[in-house]
């Protein structure tokens, strides 16, 4: 029963993480395709699934119901298969994902500063400030993607580290100075993911342990 309670808590936590990520990065949908937000959606689904599994485990153990206990065991096997498939897919498609994100970012740069591209402009400004980056791979991407507005000496304001409130379609005061954000956003994304991957691995190990305990206690 205690292990089932832990799984219920785990399910709620996973759902909360997925919903939080979706809410925090909702505006990024203006730049990235919806497929890039499948991970937080997947977390919500998995969290709900784990909660249901824990419910069947609790009810099956309490009522000593064979059907519910059997259902519980089948669901445990299914979630293990899903975790295994997700891990393999993530490893195999890691390079393709980087290319897809890069193409989406490059495409959106063409609309930056346009009359009907306020959302894209705002999101790019937020990305470059939050991730301390400029362009996709470096600042020269702006000139290649949007030559009508930018070049090596005329970049979005957020490509340079500025005082609070200096955000928008205004040139960097001095793109050649130390204030220029030299790291590309695609690399900043990668560094962010790597920095948090360790915690994800620990959480995955904890979840696997809980599932193993549930599998043992169900027999």
From TrEMBL:
Alphabetical list of InterPro entries matching this protein: Tetraspanin/Peripherin (IPR018499), Tetraspanin_animals (IPR000301), Tetraspanin_EC2_sf (IPR008952)
Location(s), subcellular: Membrane
GO CC, any one term: plasma membrane
SUPFAM superfamilies: Tetraspanin
Topology within the bilayer: Multi-pass membrane protein
UniProt keyword terms in alphabetical order: Membrane, Transmembrane, Transmembrane helix
PANTHER family per record: CD63 MOLECULE, TETRASPANIN
Family indicated by similarity: Belongs to the tetraspanin (TM4SF) family.
Name used for this protein in its record: Tetraspanin
UniProt organism field: Anopheles melas
């Amino acid at each position: 029963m205690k292990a089932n309670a832990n799984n219920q808590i785990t399910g709620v936590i996973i759902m909360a993480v997925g919903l939080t990520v979706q809410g925090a990065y909702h505006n990024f949908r203006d730049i990235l395709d919806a497929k890039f937000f499948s991970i937080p959606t997947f977390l919500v689904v998995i969290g709900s699934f784990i909660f249901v599994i824990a419910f069947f485990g609790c009810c099956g153990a309490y009522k000593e119901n064979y059907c519910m206990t059997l259902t519980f065991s089948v669901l445990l096997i299914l979630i293990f298969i899903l975790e295994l498939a997700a891990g393999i897919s993530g490893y195999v498609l890691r390079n393709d994902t980087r290319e897809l994100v890069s193409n989406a970012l490059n495409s959106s740069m063409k609309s930056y500063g346009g009359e009907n591209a306020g959302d894209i402009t705002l999101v790019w400004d937020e990305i470059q400030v939050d991730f301390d980056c400029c362009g996709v791979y470096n600042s020269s991407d702006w000139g290649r993607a949007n030559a009508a507005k930018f070049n090596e000496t005329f970049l979005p304001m957020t490509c340079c580290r500025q005082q609070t409130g200096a955000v928008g379609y205004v040139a960097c005061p001095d793109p050649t100075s130390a204030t220029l954000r030299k790291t590309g956003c695609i690399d900043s994304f990668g560094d962010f993911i790597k920095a948090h991957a360790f915690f994800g691995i620990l959480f995955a190990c904890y979840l696997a342990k809980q599932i193993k305990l549930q599998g043992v206690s169900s027999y």
